[in-house]
Design brief:
Elements: H1 2-31, H2 40-51, E1 53-54, E2 74-76, E3 83-87, H3 96-102, E4 105-106, E5 120-122, E6 145-147, E7 155-156, E8 169-171, E9 182-183, E10 198-200, H4 212-216, E11 224-226, E12 249-251, E13 273-275, E14 297-299, E15 306-307, H5 311-314, E16 321-323, E17 328-331, H6 334-343, E18 348-350, E19 355-358, E20 372-374, E21 379-380, E22 396-398, E23 420-422
Parallel strand pairs: 3-5, 5-6, 6-8, 7-9, 8-10, 10-11, 11-12, 12-13, 13-14, 14-16, 15-17, 16-18, 17-19, 18-20, 19-21, 20-22, 22-23
Antiparallel strand pairs: 1-4, 2-3
The chain binds 2-acetamido-2-deoxy-beta-D-glucopyranose (NAG) (10 copies).
């Protein structure tokens, strides 16, 4: 009996070994690229591409030899040897001046069209000397990632990009101070990109695209939308139907919006980051922010907003940073701070240069995660609450330019993480002792 069992399990072991051996053989072949390497056509295409560039830092010096899959910046499909990725992002240097020197310069050669399986193309931070995006890029049908940001490309964005029906990431961000700028008269080509999840056209001149919103609202998979410094002329108040409800991050700062905040925004309930600074928004902060349960970062600075902070902003349980600097907001912080102290998620609060008034609520002291509290240039008065010692994470505290006419509690000496303390142009009473600086 026991010997049969032994025999059975022995057989089983043997079979397993054969299978394992066979698998190992396959692995061995792949790992060593015994017969899988790039085709001559693709190698030639890459060499022609290299030929059209100047490369002062020798970043493409590894582009020699038979197997282009081994070259810097190239990845291939491990089964077919086809080039799938070309990543020539110029990110070796950290500062802009050094980066300029290591940039590849020249033209994007049409030989790229011979890379029939290219999924990922990153030419960011190089220097194509103001030339337009070649229309041929629209023929790289297999692309799912295209990054041409900060590459000194310019001119009209070719509608041919709308042929890239597999595209998930499109990054065309440019330096706002750069001579070369993208522009467009319409964005109708976005219709061809139903899988797009990430769109950044920051810095492009879109002032001629009057119905930009309808033209962007065709992207049902979009999760990140970056249109900062695009001269967008209006923030349309009406939108019949919100298509891009999966948005989680929106940056539309520094455009030319001069209207109240539209209501359709509040249907995008999964939004986590919302940056709208430096527009000319008017009106009040809508209490419809109550819908945005996921909101983590909200920046509405540099507008003409009036009225109070709606208490509801304090009730948002994921809120980490709130920036309302440079508006015309007024009222006290009592209801707002009360909500905040129950959530205790806030890390950064910047209310610089508004007309807020009243005394600082005790509840502020319960914000143990707060790192930065900047209340410069308001009309707060009275004392700093004793509870301030509870702000255990506080690094930056500014009350500059407020008529603070009470006293500074010794408990301020407990703020052991403090780096910046700005109490200038205030009206404090009382004395300062060593205790104030104890920790
Ligand atoms: C592409 O490369 C080939 C071979 O080096 C060259 O003949 C052709 O002029 C280049 N085309 C462009 C647009 O640079
Ligand atoms: C594109 O490249 C830039 C600069 O190299 C980088 O900061 C950015 O995150 C990239 N975009 C995407 C979508 O990966
Ligand atoms: C777009 O940029 C190009 C090149 O700078 C320029 O010739 C063209 O007039 C611009 N078009 C628009 C609509 O701004
Ligand atoms: C690509 O897009 C352009 C402009 O939208 C269009 O004229 C052209 O026919 C398209 N090319 C192909 C091969 O579909
Ligand atoms: C929503 O997006 C889909 C897919 O792109 C599109 O067919 C539809 O027309 C869009 N709806 C509106 C109202 O724009
Ligand atoms: C916003 O959502 C509400 C409720 O789900 C819906 O009735 C309304 O039509 C939506 N509005 C827009 C502009 O999509
Ligand atoms: C905030 O939440 C509290 C309960 O936690 C509630 O009493 C209060 O009404 C809410 N404030 C607003 C403005 O909705
Ligand atoms: C701020 O609002 C007050 C009224 O609340 C108004 O008198 C004042 O003109 C506004 N200031 C600016 C710069 O809009
Ligand atoms: C602040 O915390 C203290 C104790 O930790 C608690 O008694 C008080 O109710 C809290 N205040 C608010 C406004 O939540
Ligand atoms: C501080 O200023 C406020 C508002 O101007 C005033 O009501 C209060 O009496 C002042 N307190 C002291 C101690 O001067």
């Amino acid at each position: 009996m026991s010997s049969t069992i032994m025999k059975k399990s022995g057989n089983h072991l043997l079979k397993l070994n054969f299978v394992q051996l066979f698998l190992c053989f396959l692995c061995f072949c792949n790992a060593n690229d015994l017969n899988i390497r790039c085709s001559d056509i693709e190698k030639k295409a890459l060499l022609d591409f290299k030929e059209s560039l100047t490369d002062p830092f020798g970043r493409l010096s590894s582009w020699v030899g038979e197997d282009c899959c081994q070259w810097h910046g190239i990845s291939c499909n491990s089964e077919t040897g086809q080039v799938t990725k070309l990543d020539l992002r110029n990110s070796l240097q950290t500062n802009k001046a050094a980066q300029k020197k290591s940039a590849l310069r020249g033209k994007i050669n049409s030989s790229l069209l011979n890379l029939k399986n290219l999924r990922y193309l990153d030419l960011s931070m190089n220097n194509f000397e103001g030339s337009p995006i070649p229309q041929l890029i629209g023929s790289l049908r297999t692309l799912s990632y295209l990054n041409l940001s900060y590459a000194e490309l310019g001119g009209t964005i070719p509608p041919h990009l709308g042929n890239l029906s597999n595209l998930q990431y499109l990054d065309l961000h440019s330096y706002s101070d750069s001579g070369s700028k993208f522009n467009a008269t319409d964005l109708l080509w976005l219709r061809g990109l139903p899988s797009l999840e990430y769109l950044d056209m920051g810095g492009a001149d879109l002032s001629a695209v009057t119905d930009w919103l309808q033209q962007v609202n065709v992207l049902p998979s979009l999760s990140e939308l970056y249109l900062s410094s695009c001269k967008l002329p209006t923030f349309p108040f009406f939108l019949p139907f919100v298509n891009f409800t999966s948005l989680v991050a929106v940056d539309m700062s520094n455009n030319l919006f001069n209207s109240p905040m539209p209501r359709w925004i509040f249907n995008i309930t999964g939004l986590k980051s919302f940056f709208l600074s430096s527009n000319n928004l008017i009106g009040t902060i809508p209490s419809a922010f109550a819908n945005m349960h996921s909101l983590q970062h909200l920046d509405l600075s540099h507008q003409f907003l009036e009225g109070t902070i709606p208490g509801i902003l304090g009730n948002l349980s994921n809120l980490k940073s709130l920036t309302l600097a440079f508006n015309n907001l007024s009222g006290n912080l009592i209801e707002f701070a009360d909500g905040l102290s129950k959530q205790n998620s806030l890390e950064v609060l910047d209310l610089t240069q508004n007309r807020f008034s009243g005394h600082l609520p005790d509840a502020l002291g319960n914000l143990t995660n707060l790192r930065s509290l900047v209340l410069r240039g308001n009309m707060f008065w009275g004392s700093i609450p004793e509870s301030i010692r509870l702000f255990s994470s506080l690094q930056h505290l500014s009350l500059f330019g407020n008529p603070m006419n009470g006293s500074i509690p010794e408990s301020i000496g407990q703020l052991s993480q403090l780096v910046v303390l700005d109490f200038g142009q205030t009206a404090w009473r009382g004395t300062i002792s060593e205790q104030h600086f104890s920790n």
